[in-house]
Design goal:
single chain, alpha/beta, 3-stranded parallel β-sheet
Length: 187
Amino acid sequence: PLRLSADEVREVEGLGKPTHILLTSNYHLRESEAFRQRWGCKVLLHQEGLKGAEGGIDGTFQDREMLWDLIEAIQVPNVHYPEEVAFLVREDGGVLIVGDIVCGGRKDRGVPDGELWINGPEYVFDLQEARISIQRLLEYPFEVICFGHGSPITQRPKAVLKRFIESEAVWEKLKVEKAERSGSLPR
């Protein structure tokens, strides 16, 4: 979790005091300790990320584990981090929360609303492996997809994700962007 303004903290607390922080990757530890102290909540991370954790982790979960009979953890390795997960909230048709695996509409990145892109393709070791890992998300039922960055997709999100995965033009463009940002030529 990122630092929140006082108004944002009040808004969260207005919904009820958080009991847990579910991290999509070890990298997202950020302000967890401050929130743990404020709310007394537990911080959970996929077991694969524990060996690199630099802060207080109170517990772990594993791939396909159901948390509270409501949220399924789905490991999506080979995008940015081996422990990276998406969370599927299994109610109201399913809400898929993907963190940084992909992003939604972002004016600052030129990604139109209703479309997808990879955050930081220069940090993806192997785009083909990432593509295969992301494809795993199509196995799950969801009617909304939410991101760490970008506007959510509420209209046919599974079809949008499928089109993104299957588009050779998208992956070629990602390969070029990765090469430009990392200072190497695409292979």
